[in-house]
Amino acid sequence: MPAPDRPAIVCLAHLDWDYVWQRPQQILSRLARHYPVTYIQEPRISPAWDGQPRFARVAADGGVTAWQPFFPDRPEVIGPWRAVYAGLVRELLIEQGWIRRAGGGLVATRPLILWFYTPIPWYVVDRLPADLVVYDVMDELADFKGAAPDLREREARLLSHADLVFAGGRSLHEARQGRHPHLHLFPSGVDAAHFGRAGEPGAVVAPEVAALPRPRLGYHGVIDERIDLALLADLAGGHPDWSIALVGPVAKIEPRLLPRAPNLHYLGPQPYGRLPEFLAGFDVCLMPFARNEATRAISPTKTLEYMAGGKPIVSTPVPDVVANWAEVVRIAETAAGFAEAVRRALGETAAERAARAGRAGAIVAGGGWDGIAGGMRALIDDALARRAATGG
């Protein structure tokens, strides 16, 4: 366990800790080996809740404790939203012993790192005695369906307060160039050992996939407005002999709008620990992203996960995928081109497979989450040391 005088991280995030295991979980679970982490999910408003605003602990594992705020849907709570939310966070940290009241104010009892994955609660920086403010940009959230209309303004305010800004992809980094003096590119990473299990001889295949006829095309991740549903429908309808498996939760899409076909299989959300078993059963991995504002700046983590599993990949022309991994990923702009790319992937020769595996292996070897978290930690420790040396 980290010593009591070690820094502690308070993370304000837009994703549930026990949702799809992705960038926040990968990074913070590694940083938690050195700093205790309190992870706070976005508040949920419940019309049925007639009590006071409260926190519920939803996870506690490996140095990370995750909390879910619940707000009753009452004017006296929703009106002063910012004060209520910041007050909840403050009381939680007092209870944990990370801050204390002193002379009418608050002081930290250990170096406190305030870490943001969303700029929505930027105002908390003025209400907590943080020693360091970190903003890790994992998506262009302002372009997502249902985004707050003032999200770009909120991000501008957060950038003005942040000490360090990390960008999770090339496009995200380029969009913030010149907007912060301490901007660092930390693109998508991979747990190579975890997903590498999918490519091992005799790898366990999830029974949900093993039951499907081959060839099997697979996707794992969130199914939301970033997925090209028309492309999926065309792929399934035009190739009834291909089994298409989609592993992951459906979000922000009405289930009735999802394409349906006998060979199109929605396998639902699955634990992170089981994903290699699904990947092991895929003959080709898909990234059927729509070309819209929500995908303009994504840097899909699943790309390296598919590579680590040794699988051929077909993707639509997402800018970061084209810029970073075109030597490994087959890129197709149209539905017909996508199907042809899948056909070529299924027909890979042994020489083509070996060449692809060599290129993918080099990318995976340089993209581990351990190295990414280590690079972030070095910058954090350096910034804290400089702050201590200058007295604030």
Q: Judging from the principal axes of the Cα atoms, what is the shape?
A: globular
CATH class of the largest domain: Alpha Beta
In this structure, how is the largest beta sheet organized? Answer: 9 strands, mixed
Rg value: 22 Å
Question: Mean pLDDT, rounded to whole units?
Answer: 94
β-strand number? 17
Assign the structural class, choosing from mainly alpha, mainly beta, alpha/beta, alpha+beta, or little secondary structure: alpha/beta
Quaternary: single chain
How much of the sequence lies in strands comes to: 15-25%
Architecture per CATH nomenclature, i.e. the level-2 architecture of the largest domain: 3-Layer(aba) Sandwich
Task: List low-confidence stretches.
Answer: none
- The helical percent reads 25-40%
Structurally, how many domains make up the residues? 2
